[in-house]
Amino acid sequence: MTRDIKKAFQEATDFVDIIKQPVGEVSLDDRKAIATETVENFRDYINKGFLEYRKSVTEAGSFAVTEWTGQGSILVDALEREYIDILGGFGLYSYGIRHPKIVEAVKAQLDRSPQYSQEMLDPLRAKLARVIAHLTPGDIQYGFFANSGTEAVEGAMKLAKFYTGKKGFISMLKGFHGKTLGSLSLMGKNDYRAPLLPLLEGVRHVPFGDADAVEQELKNALAVGDDIAGVVAEPIQGEAGAIVPPDDYWPRLREICDKYGVLLIADEVQTGFGRTGEIFGVDHWDVTPDIMCFGKALGGGVVPMSGFFSTPKIWEVMEPNPFMHTTTTGGNPLACASALAALTVMHEEDLPRQAKEKGEYVKKRLNEMADTYPGIFDTISGRGLLIGMQFVSDEIGYAVASGLFARGVITAGTLTNAKCIRFEPALNIPYELLDEALNKMEDVIKTLPKN
C-alpha cells in the first residue's frame, strides 16, 4: 500500500458528503458503487476472511448486501432490498433499530456535549448509575461504565481479584464472555482460546448448569491451595445456544459461593434489560449476584455502552484510589443519554413482558414445526426472545440460515455452537413480522432433504 495523504483526505471528504445526504437522495448508481467498493475494502483493509463467512456476500448475487438503513425490525440494504431482522445485532437491538425516542435523546445530547472533559463531574453518568442501582436486585449499587461487554467482564474480574486478593476463577464450558485476554480466559470453547494460550492463570471450567461440579471444583482448589476469587456464569448461556439451567442452579450457586467465600459474578451482557422476559436474567430465580456485567442492549442499540456493578462493601476497595480502573470514553454523555432513553422505552413499552409473551409464541410455533418435520430440529431452548434453534447437523443449520437470508430474513449461528441458530429479534417486533419470519422458516424447512 502506497502512502497517499491527499487521497486519504479526499476519500474521507467524499464519503462524509454522502453521509450528509438524506438516505433517499443518494443515487442508485452511487449506492451500487458503495456496495461494490465495500466488498473490496473488507477484502483489502479489514479481513478477507469475513467475505467467506458473510451470507451478505455469498448468497447475495451480483451485489453484496451492504447495510444502508433500518427501522424497528426491518433492515434495508444499499439497493433497497428489505430484510426482517430476527438476529437483533446479537442482542444489541432489544429496542429495535433506531428507536425514535433513543435517537432523539442522543441527538439532543450531541448538541449539548458529545464527550466529557475528564475533570468536571458529568451528570448523565451519575444519573444513569443511580437509575441502574434502583433497577438491580439486592444491594447492588455502585458501577463503572465502559464501551463493550468484554470490557465489563474484564472490569468485574479486576474488581473480584482486587477485593478478594485471590487470582482464580471458575467459569462454564461453552460460556462466552468476550475475546480480550482476560474474558477469553473464561471462555468455554477451545477454538478461540487454543491459538492464544497461555491465557490468565487459575481459571477452571465446569459444565454449565451443574452446581455440584462448581462445588467440587471449589473443594479441589481448596485442597491444593489454589485460591478462587469468583464464579462467573451467564444466567442463560447465549452463544452456546440459549441454554437454560435447572431451576435450582442459580440459587445453589449463591449458596455455594457464600459457603466458600467467593464472589458470584453474573454476565448479563446478553440477558440483561428485558431480553429473557425479566429485567435481568437472574430475576428468574430471585438471586442477587455480587457483581453484575451489562452491555449490548444497555446502549439502546444507538451508542455502544457497558458496565459492571457491585455492592457498597465490595466497591470500597475502589475508593482509596478511584484511578485503579479508568476509561477515556466509557460512560460518555452520548452513551449515557442513549442508555437513559433506552431504559425509559423498556419501561414504557413493558419490553420484558413483550419478550416473555412473544418468546412463548415463537417457541410454540417452532415446536410445532419440529413435530411436523422430524429429523430437522434437535432441541429448541431459551427464555423470552433469547431462543436457540438446535439442529441435528451443522449442514442443516447453515441451510436454514442461508435459506432464510435468500427469503429476506436475517439470522445467524452462535459462536460456540455451530449447530445452533439464534432467534433474537427486537423485543417490540410486531407479531406480523414474527409470523412472516416463521412462515419463511417453514418454507425453508420444507425444501430440506428428508432423512
UniProtKB/TrEMBL annotation:
UniProt keyword Lipid metabolism, yes or no: no
SUPFAM superfamilies: PLP-dependent transferases
InterPro entries on file: Aminotrans_3, Aminotrans_3_PPA_site, Class-III_PLP-dep_AT, PyrdxlP-dep_Trfase, PyrdxlP-dep_Trfase_major, PyrdxlP-dep_Trfase_small
Keywords associated with the record: Aminotransferase, ATP-binding, Nucleotide-binding, Pyridoxal phosphate, Transferase
Source domain of life: Bacteria
Cofactor: pyridoxal 5'-phosphate
PANTHER family associated with the record: AMINOTRANSFERASE CLASS III, PUTRESCINE AMINOTRANSFERASE
Homology family: Belongs to the class-III pyridoxal-phosphate-dependent aminotransferase family.
Protein known as: Putrescine aminotransferase
